[in-house]
Amino acid sequence: MEQKTINLGIFGFGCVGQGLYEVLNRTKGINARIKKICIKDPNKPRPIDMSYFTTDANEILNDPTIDVVVELINETEAAFEIVSTALRNGKAVVSASKRMIAENLPALYQLQVENKVPFLYEASSCASIPIIRNLEEYYDNDLLNAVEGICNGSTNYILTKIFEEHLSFETALQQAQDLGFAETDPTLDVEGYDPKFKIVILLLHAFGTFVKPEEVFNFGINHLNDFDINFARQRNCTIKLIANCRRQNGSVNAYVLPHLIREHNLLYDVYNEYNGVLLESAFTDKQFFVGKGAGGTATGSAVLSDISALLYNYRYEYKKIKQQNQPSFTNDVQLKVYLRFKSPDQVDLASFYNISEKYESPECRYVVGTINLQKLKEAKWLKNKDVNLLVLEN
Fold first, then answer.
1. Which residues are registered as beta bridge partners of 256?
2. Of all helices (H) and strands (E), which one includes residue 109?
3. What is the pLDDT of residues 335-360, one digit of tens each?
4. Which part of the chain is the Homoserine dehydrogenase catalytic domain (predicted)?
5. Cβ(90)–Cβ(117) under 8 Å?
6. Do 9 and 35 touch, CB atoms closer than 8 A?
């Protein structure tokens, strides 16, 4: 595609689609233009000329003059159909749909191989942070030990407002929704599903291991209450929702859990809608990336970066898959956790290997101890709103 103007066909014109339109029109030097935008509701007012829009997907998918399909919709099955059809039609594709990608990674990888066309999705993982490309290009060996970080701008905004401005969870969530950082239905964010989809994607590029989202345990911040917040403050900690994948003893584990973070941790000072990612490798120790993790222009800029990369024939090489030494996935790992509950019949303390601290009052109880990740994944008692879990730093 080098040295030519590429024509874009875009699916979706919500927050990210409009962000892409804005950054594309403000950026000089990228030879790309929007030819057509496919939307669902033709009667909805749009901020740009209606001649751009169509409701017929085939106007993009079957147009031989459209070089790149940009998929930016919220419907998982429809997004996969768009992307797979475009790849089969020989079109390069850029996507920001983390759930669709995480749930279909093996199929999407195979489609790229079979049809010899690139599929880029930097915007799916940490918005403005170019983490996938770093994993692909800089960490293209097998010496990476861990990827962990704040991968959801919505929950980080909420937690920042709770700890820095003493807002209630409900007020902070409403602010995040008003600013466009959280959806009207915030379930995927506050329950930790959104960062889980992202860590599944990053796990593939970090270690070459395909993992289904349902194999990865996620527990969010929606059970958080004032007692937990005071527990953190008394220990000079804050709370961050952390997505983590780590290689240990020939296998790799992954999870999304709220953590108690001390001031020395680089993630402590990642505030508001920002994301922060720590990479740990055998030779370089830790490297830290930080950038905006929510918002239309932040995500739109990552989409535009992928479009620009296509001008220079860039594609993911998936070198770690080809190295044939991928670690197997496991949930057999021990975590030190704080578990808060109301009454003993709400939890199964027999699941703990050890308990180092206990507290009881008429209103609340908690324990600090070590438990297996697989036990947590299987624990039905974690669904109780009166029960909360935080991982403690070692």
1. 218, 243
2. helix 105-115
3. 999 999 999 999 999 999 999 999 99
4. 130-307
5. yes
6. yes
Q: Is the pLDDT at 314 greater than 90, yes or no?
A: yes
Residue 244: strand pairing partners? 148, 255
The residue to which tokens 């908690």 are assigned:
366
CA 220 from chain center: how many Å?
13
Q: Which residues are marked as active site?
A: 198
Give me 166's structure tokens: 């003493």
Largest separation between any pair of C-alpha atoms in the chain:
71
Whether 1 shows a pLDDT value over 90: the answer reads no
Cβ 217 vs Cβ 377: under 8 Å: yes
Write the pLDDT tens digit of every residue in 54-90. 999 999 999 999 999 999 998 999 999 999 999 999 9
Note the Cα 235 to chain centre separation in Å.
Answer: 28
For residue 72, give both structure tokens. Answer: 């930016």
Between 324 and 250, the higher pLDDT residue: 250
* Per-residue H/E/C for 269-327: HCCCCEEEEEEEECCCEEEEEEEECCCHHHHHHHHHHHHHHHCCCCCCCCHHHHCCCCC
Per DSSP bridges, beta strands 68-71 and 92-95 are: parallel
27: Cβ–Cβ under 8 A, 6 or more apart, which residues? 304
What CA–CA distance (Å, rounded) separates 286 from 277?
A: 10
Cα–Cα distance between 281 and 85 in angstroms, integer?
A: 38
Residue 2, pLDDT > 80, answer no
Give the residue from 287, 259, 288, 253 showing the smallest Cα distance to 274: 288
Q: What pLDDT, on the 0 to 100 scale, is given for residue 372?
A: 97
User: How far apart, in whole angstroms, are the C-alpha atoms of residue 296 and residue 274?
Assistant: 13
| Nearest CA among 389, 371, 382, 379 for reference residue 334 | 371
Question: How far apart, in whole angstroms, are the C-alpha atoms of residue 281 and residue 164?
Answer: 32
Q: What percent of the chain has pLDDT over 70?
A: 99
What average pLDDT does this structure show over 241-254? 95
> Which residue do the tokens 């860039």 mark?
314
Q: Which two tokens stand for residue 139?
A: 């960490």
The 53-54 sheet, strands edge to edge = 53-54, 32-38, 6-11, 68-71, 92-95, 119-120
